[in-house]
């Protein structure tokens, strides 16, 4: 790879237009040579019209998905792969040696971390074992004996994007949703200011920055209105969590509540770019440039960067791409 060139492949790119745009801006601003390639199941993915090249792939669950990704990496001379959805993180982590063989880096945390983050029960157990405040998950024995108080929170054990997450107010709702939601876990209900926290980590575990984003409003599990906050308590708590994680790499997105008494309670880990990351980038946390640096084999050993703008607000709205035809083939 030339010192001034890097080609990045975003997998499962879908609607992540803002993120792709931010990376293209970083290329232009810093005079970086290379291209942004997006991959998706559909030729109608909006990112297809923002990247330098768009390629079609099978579903992540199909047996030839990995083979197709490796072929794209060779054909497009990819240096760094950035996965964007939960469903492929464990798969890619499990097959990382295949990418190593063709000198392609994966912006990907360890298999252990991805397996733990993909399982809400394992996440709870990991937080509890490491002294990290988290809502209690009730076992079957406790549920049978009524050792809980309403309201409760119920969610799929392996869910994402807040799908199936339901507040439970009474016994009738508990019985219904426990049967209705596949692999349901029942959790203590917590309240307070809800934060999404973006943390950038290099391949050696060095943290570059931590950006808490107060969630004002969400839609379909993704923040639609948010504001950056230099909340020192949240930053310190998030750093403690990330330093306890096994093999964090790239953007690690945490979810937490700052409760009324001041306790920071963590509920979720997503070891990938979250949907609201454009707010952190717009605030001055240069996740695109830092990602490019990692793709070049650099590290963040020089120290952390907290120069991003406090209290920058993001108010999202729908936009559209207009095209006369779809010309991509697979």
TrEMBL record:
Q: Which UniProt keywords apply?
A: ATP-binding, Ligase, Nucleotide-binding
**The ATP-grasp domain, residue ranges:** 124-296
Record SUPFAM superfamilies: Glutathione synthetase ATP-binding domain-like (SSF56059)
Q: Which domain of life is it from?
A: Bacteria
Q: What GO annotations for molecular function exist for this entry?
A: ATP binding; ligase activity; metal ion binding
Family annotation (InterPro entries): ATP-dep_AA_Ligase, ATP-grasp, ATP-grasp_PylC-type, ATP_grasp_subdomain_1, PylC_N
What Gene3D superfamilies is this protein classified in? 3.40.50.20, ATP-grasp fold, A domain, ATP-grasp fold, B domain
Q: Which PANTHER family match?
A: ATP-GRASP ENZYME FSQD (PTHR43585:SF2), FUMIPYRROLE BIOSYNTHESIS PROTEIN C (PTHR43585)
Q: Give the protein name, as stated in the record.
A: ATP-grasp domain-containing protein
Q: Which organism is it from?
A: Paenibacillus arenilitoris
Q: What is the lineage of its organism?
A: Bacteria, Bacillati, Bacillota, Bacilli, Bacillales
């Amino acid at each position: 790879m030339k010192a001034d060139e890097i080609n990045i492949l975003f997998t499962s790119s879908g609607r992540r237009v803002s993120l792709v745009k931010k990376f293209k801006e970083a290329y232009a601003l810093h005079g970086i040579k290379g291209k942004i390639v997006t991959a998706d199941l559909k030729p109608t993915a909006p990112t297809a019209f923002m990247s330098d090249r768009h390629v079609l792939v099978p579903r992540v669950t199909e047996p030839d998905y990995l083979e197709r990704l490796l072929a794209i990496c060779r054909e497009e001379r990819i240096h760094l792969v950035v996965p964007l959805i939960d469903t492929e993180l464990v798969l890619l982590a499990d097959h990382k040696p295949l990418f190593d063989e063709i000198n392609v880096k994966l912006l990907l945390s360890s298999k252990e971390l991805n397996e733990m983050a993909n399982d809400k029960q394992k996440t709870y157990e990991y937080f509890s074992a490491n002294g990290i405040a988290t809502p209690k998950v009730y076992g079957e024995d406790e549920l049978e004996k009524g050792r809980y108080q309403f309201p409760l929170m119920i969610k799929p054990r392996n869910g994402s994007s807040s799908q199936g997450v339901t507040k439970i107010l009474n016994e009738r709702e508990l019985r219904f949703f426990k049967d209705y939601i596949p692999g349901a876990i029942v959790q203590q209900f917590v309240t307070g200011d809800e934060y999404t926290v973006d943390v950038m980590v290099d391949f050696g575990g060095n943290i570059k920055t931590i950006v808490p984003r107060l969630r004002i409003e969400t839609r379909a599990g993704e923040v639609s209105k948010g504001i950056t906050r230099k909340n020192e308590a949240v930053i310190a708590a998030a750093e403690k969590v990330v330093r306890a994680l096994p093999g964090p790499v790239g953007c690690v997105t945490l979810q937490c509540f700052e409760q009324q008494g001041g306790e920071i309670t963590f509920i979720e880990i997503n070891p990938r770019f979250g949907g609201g990351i454009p707010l952190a980038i717009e605030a001055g946390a240069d996740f695109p440039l830092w990602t490019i640096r990692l793709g070049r084999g650099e590290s963040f050993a020089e120290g952390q960067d907290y120069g991003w703008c406090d209290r920058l607000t993001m108010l999202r709205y729908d936009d559209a791409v207009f095209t006369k035809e779809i010309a991509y083939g697979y």
